[in-house]
Amino acid sequence: MTTILSGPDCTTMAEVRAGVDATDRELVALLARRFAYMDAAARIKPDRAAVRDEARKAAVIANVRAEARRHDIPEAIVADLWETLVEGSIAYEFAAFDAR
User: Locate the Chorismate mutase domain: which residues (predicted)?
Assistant: First the structure.
């Protein structure tokens, strides 16, 4: 088993790649957890019109911008990623809502 080092501790590209690959696996697991919440939202919301909530979308993106600042990572990149994630989540939730 390969030991995963923190970014600052890496001295080779193999170590960097192992860390990136491990992080990607963790991110996908977290996305699976997030999409399970989209399934729950589709089950709980009273009607299709409730699926898209622009105020909630804005709050989610504002929250991740603040987290990006807190972690000193590029806020605009994180916001762009979340724009894509939230829009994908809304599309997923519409499909889940329609399937029920």
Answer: 7-97
